[in-house]
Design brief:
alpha/beta, tRNA A58 N-methylase Trm61 (Gcd14), SAM-dependent_MTases_sf, globular, seven-stranded mixed β-sheet, Rossmann fold
């Protein structure tokens, strides 16, 4: 068996994504994860999928339609933003799981990842999980350190690294009252 980040992610999502969940695919790319997630959340769950490219958003929408999953996903044409999350989730709704996939990026802008994580974190439930995927070309320890600078006191973290990339997992700790 060959270890791969894609295989790890697939297994992780198969085990963690449950019916009725609200999941955000923050950098949806070609939409394959969005379609898989929509198949897992059930008829009462929802996937919110952000696309930087209009053509990719249209392809994802068509793929969901062909699979009969269009009612389980909302496709946003435009990158992950506080405004986009606020519009779709509102002030009270929080996501169970968020995925930020930078694994196909040639180079990772650590400032952009940190900014995206800060935005995503505000819309994540307590005990919710934030997954950050990066390519094998990127130094996962640096990315992890940058993210934990802001989240250290309110998150636990884990890491899976393979030859084809890494997945950083951050779980939001419950606030003490």
């Amino acid at each position: 068996m060959t270890f791969s980040n894609e295989r790890f992610l697939q297994n992780f999502l198969e085990n963690e994504v449950q019916t009725d969940m609200l999941v955000v695919d923050g950098h949806a790319g070609n939409g394959q994860k969005t379609r898989f997630l929509a198949s897992r959340v059930g008829k009462n769950g929802m996937v919110l999928s952000f696309h930087d490219d209009r053509e990719a958003a249209n392809k994802t929408a068509a793929s969901l339609f062909m699979a009969g999953l269009q009612e389980r996903a909302t496709i946003e044409n435009g990158g992950l933003s506080e405004e986009g999350l606020q519009k779709e989730l509102g002030r009270l709704t929080k996501a169970d799981l968020m995925i930020l996939d930078y694994s196909s990026s040639e180079t990772v802008n650590h400032h952009q990842i940190n900014a995206d994580c800060d935005v995503a974190w505000e819309f994540l439930k307590e005990s919710g999980q934030l997954l950050v995927l990066i390519s094998a070309n990127d130094d996962f320890s640096t990315v992890r350190k940058v993210i934990l600078t802001d989240l250290a006191d309110c998150a636990s973290s884990a890491l899976f690294a393979a030859d084809d990339g890494s997945t950083l997992i951050f779980e939001k700790k419950a606030t003490e009252e």
